[in-house]
Amino acid sequence: MSAPSGAWFSLATRSPFSHSRRTYARGHAYQPTQLPVSRVLPDPHAGGRARSGQACQTGFVTSEQHVSGGELLVSTHPVGAGFFDQSVILLLESDTDGAVGIALNKPSQMPVSQVLPDWEAQLNPPQVLFAGGPVLPNGALCLAKVLDPGEDPLGWRRITGDIGVLHLDTPVELAVGAFSDVRVFAGYSGWEAGQLEREIRQGAWLRTTPREEEIFGADTDDLWRRVLRRMGSQAALLSAYTANPELN
């Protein structure tokens, strides 16, 4: 059962550059649905973390304009940032309290049918849980694209264009025929007030406008490289990174 609308809950987030903890009050669309297992995905912190200040070494210069929901954040760290290595994150919301987003390119091996069987038939392939981030990894959020751009279905909150967050407590029968694309994420990424802006200034993230196929596409293995390539310039150079240091 998800927390009631407006409830307070703890978002314990670990960014690539700091280990901040923050409690937020979020709208109903951002109250994750509790999954019926203690941990769905492997520990998202495993694999190492970048140290504070490491982002300054990337050399990227990014805009300091206000960060807003609907933007795509692209990690400038091929390795060394743990969960955020080569992450592509759709920002759901950013305000004076902080920011919330979900990683688009971290599919798990866990079929949605094992934890949310009623939703399986509504999902885009692959029909698995995606790791949205290190915050509340046993909670689920759902992205969905409405079929009718003029409608705001029950339990759905618009993020960008026809794409928004669908609360998974919404009866499935109300979702049938209302959405063309649906994907479920376990956990999400969070930043306290000013933290994301600071990381952007340090060069940890590049910003761009998402394309629909980048949000719901079945092939996520090279999404990080594809987004960087279509951004061009220094970003395209980063996309050529290889694990072999002699080739970089």
From TrEMBL:
SUPFAM superfamilies: VC0467-like. GO terms for cellular component: cytosol. Signal peptide: none annotated. Residues 35-54 are annotated as: Disordered. Belongs to the UPF0301 (AlgH) family. This is YqgE/AlgH family protein.
